[in-house]
Amino acid sequence: MTLAAASHGFLTPSGVEIAFLLVGLVTLGAAVVTVTTRQLVHAALWLVVALGGTAVEYLLLTAEFIAWVQVLIYVGSVVVLLLFGLMLTKAPIGRSPDADSGNRWAAVAVAAASAVALVWVVVDAFRATWIELGTPQGSTETTGRSLFQYWVLPFEALSVLLLAALVGAIVLSRKGDTAITGDGGTPPGPGPGTPPAPGGTAPVARAATGPVATPGPAPREEQR
Amino acid sequence: MHLVYPAVLAALLFCTGLYGVLARRNAILVLMSVELMLNAVNLNLVAFDAWLRDTLHAGQALTLFTIAVAAAEIGIGLAIVLLVHRHRGISDIDRLRDLADTPGTPDADATDQQPQPDTKAEATA
User: Fold this and answer.
1) pTM of the entire structure?
2) CA–CA separation, A34 vs A49, rounded Å?
3) Structural domain boundaries in chain A
4) In the record, which residues are listed under signal peptide (chain B) (predicted)?
5) Interchain contact A57–B (C-beta under 8 A)
């Protein structure tokens, strides 16, 4: 600790620890409120506090680039996606009494038991271990160098994974769209809806020229 | 900095997320709890990377990968939840029991047929 204090300078290590402890308390409290509140939108907003607190912890651990990536991706996009999901599933705005399921006390027991076990093991294992935070570990230059020198292949594989996830999300939401327009387009107007279908190769032609050739679903598509 | 601080915080965050996954009923709240668990793992990775001073920075690279995979997971998960909500009108994971085993009865099909038809009708409609 004294060595880290000598090399660090403006913040004594106990100061870093105190800051880490305070931010950790805020983060943990926000996380607990996130999983216990009965207002669904408030849960998403408290999740912002928890994720932002984790970003501050990354900054205190001198992982600067990861902290900003955390702010960008989690706070910027994941929480917004979750809020969109809450709105699109028509989540109740006020207090919803059935936010917790029936096995709540079993969940409390499991979480408390695992917390006690994990904290005990971790404290017992790392009782005499200190992190020396003298030199920053995760500046943008360091992270970029290590990422593009040693981790290029996983990085590219990750981009393929992201592309697959993107295509998968589009297919998941689009298949529902075509199924709904296909099923919803034929029952109201059986007259104009059915004649184009039996003509020729059904699935391929419908997949290729579906919204253009069939006169029935086309205005529905335009309305959306 | 003592290594115990980030390790204990990560353990407690993980257990909070574990409670949320087990106790929540709405599928989107379960996804939020999964995000909390992933964050706890990321905090552990960053702390141990700062402790071990790895020359490859494996912990931070893996943290970046985890963040990207979590973003992909949340996208796919929300797409599935929205699809289920569009077909069934519900997003409560307690009530999505089409694949559930009813305990005690050897053939679950015969007992499941009674509550099934309205949900099947909703699914096909």
Assistant:
1) 0.75
2) 9
3) 8-97, 151-190
4) none
5) yes
For residue B17, give the CATH number of its domain: 1.10.287.3510
Q: What is the number of domains present in chain B?
A: 1
For the segment B69-105, what is each residue's pLDDT rounded down to a tens digit?
Answer: 999 999 999 999 999 898 888 888 888 888 777 776 5
Task: Determine contact, residues A74/A51, Cβ cutoff 8 Å.
Answer: yes
Best to test chain A binding among B2, B18, B45, B80 (most A CBs inside 10 Å): B2
Nearest residue to B37 via CA among B65, B14, B71, B62: B14
**Structural domain contains residue B121:** no
State how far residue A207 is from chain B, nearest Cα, in angstroms: 20
Whether residues A35 and B83 touch (CB distance < 8 A) is answered with: no
3-state class (DSSP) for residue A61: coil
B92 forms beta bridges with: B26
In a domain, B63, yes or no: yes
Domain residue limits at B80: 4-94
Q: How far apart, in whole angstroms, are the C-alpha atoms of residue B59 and residue B72?
A: 20
CA of A144: which chain B residue's CA is closest? B61
- pLDDT for the residue numbered A221: 40
- On whether the A8-97 domain is CATH 1.20.120.1200, my answer is yes
